[in-house]
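ok so for the tutorial part 2 we go from a plain amino acid sequence to predicted structure tokens. step 1 is just haveing the sequence, like this:
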Amino acid sequence: MKVADYVIQYLADQGIDKMFVVYGAANGDLIDAFTRTSHTQYVAVMHEQAGGFAAEGYAKISGKPGVAIATSGPGGMNLLTSMGNCFYDSIPCVFLTGQINTKFLRPDPSIRQVGFQETDIVGMATPVTKYAKLVLNPQDIRYELEKALWLCQNGRPGPVLLDLPMDVQKTEIDEATLTGYDPTPAVQTYNTETLDFQIQGLVDDLAQAKRPCMLVGGGVRLADAQDLVRELAATLKIPCFPTWNALDIITSDFDWYGGRVGTYGGAGRNFGIQNCDLLLAVGSRISGRITGGNVSSFARGAKKYVVDVDEALLQRKLQQLPFDVNVLCDAKMFIQRLLLTLNRNGTKQHFPSWEGWMAQVRTWKEQYDPVRPEFFENQEHVHPYAFMRVLSQKMGQTDILVGDCGGNIVVSNHSFETKYGQRNLTNNGNSPMGFSFAGAMGAWFADPSRRVVCTIGDGGFNMNLQELQTFLNYGVNVKTFILNNHIYGITKAFQETNFQGRAEACGPVGYNPPDFLKIVEAYGVKTVRIEDQINMADQIDQVLNSDEAVVCDVNMHEFHTYEPRIFGWKTPIEDMYPYLPREEFRANMVIEPLEDWKNPVYPDVVHSKAS
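step 2 — the prediction. this is what the tokens look like for a chain of 611 residues:
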């Protein structure tokens, strides 16, 4: 068989039933190989970047690696953003690029280019992939494929790239003569003696803690430990706070859900995590979006444990916020061993009651809900916080929500209340505009039986709206809501904070979106327009219950106020705008505050609390 046939058949044998492609001469043999297998299909998208985004959405829902295939030169370069997405969010994806014939490859890096559309895509992709390889010897194809598939799924997952010259793709090979990849030397092992010692230390510290809590990240799902971490929370009966990558693990309907944290902290305004005296972080890097710029003030009264598979993230010298105990372990293995220890010791005998602490965290969560009653009163246009809350009430237990980046994802993560069984996706690490429309398409291909909803800003919808044609070509049934504020909302808010309100290149100066529904109608896709909140709930039902793809334009009238949020990188994350009255702000802090914010500077107008 040809190398190209071997590649496609091998991927099909891994259970990957959809691969996202844009055809070009340099990948022609790879695409042609689909005609000789019944175990997988290609999806021909309109742009390589969208194909990569779709592969990411497919991987997140299917649990299998996503695959995107592009041609040489600009085709491969158009996948770089998608590779970055998967690299920073730790998503297993295989990127395949065609390359020019080997005899036309430049013989030395000092030569800029020899062949037409020759590009060193491996050199470009190396910083944003776990493994990138130009395959020059056809006999290496089994080894390289097996290595790439193993690396993308094991350890901390991520993307891989194989670059396949045209003549290599065409070469006939004998499968029986191919050498495979042995992952044994690369298998990550954990020192169980050290691990059990650290777990026992955690158990001993829990016995002394008055206000423990848990921070749960997306690595928990990558380890297939989402049910286990909820079991752990229910066993300990302590507050749990999800990162934005874990909103569908520690869901809003979970008994031990404590609210949302970070620089755009939602329900609870960060009071819970900031007042804890013991913090267990599982499967999350502790980024600036979680800690805020005043890193030393994050959970400053707590002894901090962090559990991660990425050894680099556990080196104190490389941590922005050094943790007290760094546990190198897979989240699933760690939780399993911790639960065994707890069950062996007997949690009721070992720990004090944290009922009062949990009740306090729930009070903060309910008292400081970002969605306020007055948001539902406007009749002239739609308030995005009201819209997202109603959408969350309408969506079902098995639905998939795919959100875009920018202001609309802040609105979603402030307002959308998740149910366990739902999936709530975006791309957080790279966060490119336009991800959700193509990502939702990939999610739908992964499981067409589930209802898939895409939310996206007007700016993001401009980026990949060409995929409307892919929707039509394949009957993609995704419900898309454009949260249309007619500006780059998060950018305008940033400019008001940092550039005295000079709103350049974000609207209306330098940016003006079209009437999207005219474009959508030109493609022949069904449209709905929501102008105000009078019939908003009924119109949301109309979109969700349609038996075909729908694009709904929601008029949000230049909204760009994303609250609560912190201002400035010297501000502790519990000191959020709108500010609380000084007495209430102080009353909510149990621990002794740092010297540098004992007397915070308040604005002349002090806003009352959200209720």
